[in-house]
Each structure stands twice: as C-alpha cells, then as structure tokens.
Amino acid sequence: MKNLTNKLLAGVLSAAVLLPAVGISTAAVANDRIKAQAYGDSNFSQNRQKAIQMLSSRGYQVGDIEVDDFLGKPVFEVEAYKNGAEYDIVLEYPSLKIIKEQRDY
Fold first, then answer.
1. 78-82 contact pairs (CB < 8 A, 24+)
2. How many CB atoms sit inside 10 A of residue 1's CB?
3. Of 4, 34, 43, 60, which sits 20 to 30 A from 53 (CA to CA)?
4. 36 closest CA partner among 28, 46, 25, 55
5. Would you place residue 8 in the very low, low, confident or very high pLDDT band (cuts 50, 70, 90)?
6. Are β-strands 61-70 and 98-103 bridged in parallel, bridged antiparallel, or unpaired?
7. Over the range 21-42, which residues count as b (16 or more CB within 10 Å of their CB) and which as e?
8. Distance CA 90, CA 102 (A)
C-alpha cells in the first residue's frame, strides 16, 4: 500500500513539474507563429515604413519598432520620443490602428 501511495505521489509531482513547462512552451510557439505571420507578410517592410511615417507626422521620433503579439494578434511595439519624453506605442498589424499610446515614466 505504501509503495502504491509513493508511486501515485511521484506521478502527481511529475505532472505538477511538467505541465507548467508544456504551457510555457505552447505559449512560446503561439507567440512565434504570430510574429512569423507579420514578418512573412509581403507588405511587411511597407507597413513598417508607414507606421514610422504615421508616428512622425504625429510628432514622434521613432527609436525602436518590433513585432510582438497582443491578444493573439500581431502588433508593432514602438518606442518613440516626443517633446523629450519617451512613449510606448502599440499599433495593430497590418491596419496600424493605435491600440496603446502611453508615456513611459
């Protein structure tokens, strides 16, 4: 009986250790797939340039622009500067609709 209890406990502990790792791996794969969707777009370079031009017309100087995911969809995450302040901006991809525009303190 003690041997059976030990085996069951070992199985439960193994699952407790492995399941979070599988969850992280699954999330990472989904994130990579979403990024690949944007990078694989034949209009990617044009959309990136449009994003920079749009933000420049709003008075921003774009410092860095990267692809990430937001709620399972590709976005541009932008680090930009305006009037001496840094801003974090998130643009929906490929529409370039502003999702977030926030001063970075």
1. 78/51, 79/104, 80/55, 82/58
2. 5
3. 34
4. 28
5. very low
6. unpaired
7. eeeeeeeeeeeeebbebbeebe
8. 9
C-beta atoms surrounding 90 within 10 Å = 17
pLDDT (tens digit per residue) in 31-84: 899 999 999 999 999 999 999 999 999 999 999 999 999 999 999 999 999 999
Regarding pTM above 0.85, the answer is: no
3 state SS for 48-101: HHHHHHHHHHCCCEEEEEEEEEECCEEEEEEEEEECCEEEEEEEECCCCCEEEE
* pLDDT of res. 59: 98
CB burial class (10 A; 0-12, 13-18, 19+) of residue 74?
Answer: buried
